[in-house]
TrEMBL record:
<keyword id="KW-0539">Nucleus</keyword>
<feature type="coiled-coil region">
    <location>
        <begin position="101"/>
        <end position="142"/>
    </location>
</feature>
<feature type="domain" description="WRKY">
    <location>
        <begin position="273"/>
        <end position="339"/>
    </location>
</feature>
<feature type="region of interest" description="Disordered">
    <location>
        <begin position="185"/>
        <end position="261"/>
    </location>
</feature>
<keyword id="KW-0175">Coiled coil</keyword>
<dbReference type="InterPro" id="IPR044810">
    <property type="entry name" value="WRKY_plant"/>
</dbReference>
<feature type="compositionally biased region" description="Polar residues">
    <location>
        <begin position="226"/>
        <end position="259"/>
    </location>
</feature>
<keyword id="KW-0238">DNA-binding</keyword>
<keyword id="KW-0805">Transcription regulation</keyword>
<dbReference type="InterPro" id="IPR036576">
    <property type="entry name" value="WRKY_dom_sf"/>
</dbReference>
<keyword id="KW-0804">Transcription</keyword>
<dbReference type="GO" id="GO:0043565">
    <property type="term" value="F:sequence-specific DNA binding"/>
</dbReference>
<dbReference type="GO" id="GO:0003700">
    <property type="term" value="F:DNA-binding transcription factor activity"/>
</dbReference>
<dbReference type="Pfam" id="PF03106">
    <property type="entry name" value="WRKY"/>
</dbReference>
<feature type="region of interest" description="Disordered">
    <location>
        <begin position="497"/>
        <end position="519"/>
    </location>
</feature>
<dbReference type="GO" id="GO:0005634">
    <property type="term" value="C:nucleus"/>
</dbReference>
<feature type="region of interest" description="Disordered">
    <location>
        <begin position="1"/>
        <end position="31"/>
    </location>
</feature>
Length: 519
DNA sequence: CGTTTTTGACCCGCGC
DNA sequence: GCGCGGGTCAAAAACG
């Protein structure tokens, strides 16, 4: 049902990648074998280029025969295509020096290079996965919006009246507004609709906040880094300039408004930690510290420094009542690839922000029906103390309370699928910052599912790792790519210590089919 | 020497 | 209008 045009482009743009990643194990193994058997071949070999090539092929075929006689054809193909270069260099070294020591060193260097390549490949796949996840979330939000629109139309048709015509008009507005606010292409939006959105959307965004002017000011501030690629400098001048010339560049304003709005949604994480900050995989630069009223502990302000102009910020403050509790508030979405550890947290903020903002941008007439409340209704019954949503705050905020005792957490996770993943990933250790993101993923999934299943809390739900794996499986038509990506996903999600979830790969198909069935 | 942290100043919105 | 509080800036200091 979903398509992933952006992410699918990655692997297919580089058709070598799946192949190379697929070949890594073979290559390493072959090289080892070559190393131990090299002396015979060196004696037999002749130095001309042609015979070198011939030798390489024979060498590889020998190895294949020794290792796996039944599948000689396939492995032979792999070796012919991928091993020629390294083997040739090895032969050259053996001929020029003829010392096993040196060859072994070269072998080691080659193996390290290959490992490095493999690591880079994995890293690239992880980044692609991160992007895919974000795109997936955005698409999910679009789907929710469309379904909401359909629901509204259905409801309005049931209670047909004159007022309903007006409401329907609002409902038809809603979707394009939603699309725009998500920062997605507005090609589907007609110019007429865009005009409506232009004139009405910004106020509607702020109506839900407690202070319209405050929101307006923040909106102006937050526009500047988005419209200017230079980052956060001189927000006031830029915003004023933008405000004065806003009539000229409507789409830019819409885009910046959407992104600024996205940035306003916050995900707050309460966790016990003796460390000054929660290590979440990102690079942060502290840009300020303030003594907040009512709290003897200072509040520190950080911004992401992994990319120039990244709008993500976080606030760190210790709880006044209990100093061991660290409250970390994330705001915004990263505009750059992330390492896996950071991807977890970033995806949380993205998903949570998407939920909150979709809620805040839905029509205000159906308060409890918006995704934010779907989120609440999905999450809170399971663990009311684990996640709370603050709608009265100036910014919509999801608070994840991770300070519960381990026993409580375990008890809850037994019945709460949302907590399965954190529990698995050892989230009780605060430095394992995977949980919030996993929460976000799982929450998002559940929110969507609850939407699809008639707003019921799913009794059988996907955990975050499975959801990601499911998306991966849905994306990857190429079996090689799927295998490589699944391996990478498993390593990302489960971490190095958790191999018992190796069967999650086998569960991917089930997850995918079940999720597809739901759709 | 480049990067990060510290810290006082500043800006802005809000309430009185 | 004024003070307060939250948030940010930017120069200086500290650090690696």
């Amino acid at each position: 049902m979903f398509r992933f045009p952006v992410s699918l482009g990655g692997p297919h743009d580089n058709p070598k990648q799946p192949q190379s990643s697929d070949e890594q194990p073979h290559r390493a193994m072959m090289d080892e074998v070559d190393f131990f058997r090299s002396e015979k071949r060196d004696d037999q070999n002749i130095i001309t280029d042609e015979t070198k090539r011939v030798h390489v092929k024979r060498e590889n075929s020998r190895v294949v025969d020794d290792d796996d006689r039944s599948t000689g054809i396939n492995t032979g193909l792999n070796l012919l295509t991928a091993h020629t270069g390294s083997d040739e260099s090895m032969v050259d070294d053996g001929l020029s020096v003829d010392m096993e020591e040196k060859r072994s060193k070269i072998e080691n260097v080659q193996l390290r290079e290959e490992l490095k390549k493999a690591a880079e490949e994995i890293q690239r796949l992880k980044e692609m996965l991160s992007q895919t996840t974000n795109n997936f979330n955005s698409l999910q939000m679009q789907l929710v919006a469309v379904m909401r629109q359909q629901e509204d139309h259905h409801h309005l048709a049931m209670t047909g009246s004159k007022d309903i015509a007006n409401k329907r008009h609002e409902g038809s507005e809603m979707v394009p507004r939603q699309f725009i606010e998500l920062g997605l292409p507005t090609a589907e939006v007609s110019s007429e609709e865009r005009t409506t959105v232009r004139s009405r959307s910004p106020p509607s965004l702020l109506e839900n906040s407690s202070s319209r002017q405050r929101g307006k000011r923040l909106l102006e501030r937050e526009e500047s880094p988005e419209t200017q690629s230079n980052g956060w400098g001189n927000p006031n001048k830029v915003s004023k300039h933008n405000a004065s010339s806003s009539n000229d560049n409507v789409s830019a304003i819409d885009q910046s408004t959407a992104e600024a709005t996205m940035r306003k949604a916050r995900v707050s994480v309460r966790a016990r930690s003796e460390a000054p900050t929660l290590s979440d995989g990102c690079h942060w630069r502290k840009y300020g510290q303030k003594m907040a009223k009512g709290n003897p502990c200072p509040r520190a302000y950080f911004r992401c420094t992994m990319a120039v102009g990244c709008p993500v910020r976080k606030q760190v403050q210790r709880c006044a009542e209990e100093r061991s509790i660290l409250i970390t508030t994330y705001e915004g979405n990263h505009n750059h690839p992330l390492p896996p550890a950071a991807m977890y947290m970033a995806s949380t903020t993205t998903a949570a922000a998407s939920m909150l903002l979709s809620g805040s941008t839905m029509s205000s007439q159906d308060g409890l029906m918006n995704p934010t409340n779907l989120f609440a209704r999905t999450m809170l019954p399971c663990s009311s103390s684990m996640a709370t949503i603050s709608a009265s705050a100036p910014f919509p905020t999801i608070t994840l309370d991770l300070t519960e005792s381990a026993s409580n957490v375990n008890n809850q996770t037994n019945n709460n699928p949302l907590m399965q993943f954190p529990q698995r990933s050892g989230f009780t250790e605060l430095n394992q910052s995977g949980l919030p993101q996993m929460m976000g993923q799982a929450l998002y999934y559940n929110q969507q599912q609850s939407k699809f299943s008639g707003l019921q809390i799913p009794t059988q739900s996907l955990n975050a790792g499975e959801s990601v794996s499911a998306a991966t499986a849905a994306i990857a038509a190429n079996p090689n790519f799927a295998a490589a990506l699944a391996a990478a996903l498993t390593s990302i999600i489960n971490g190095p210590n958790n191999h018992k979830n190796g069967d999650s790969n086998t569960g991917n198909n089930n997850v995918r089919t079940s999720s597809v069935e739901r759709q």
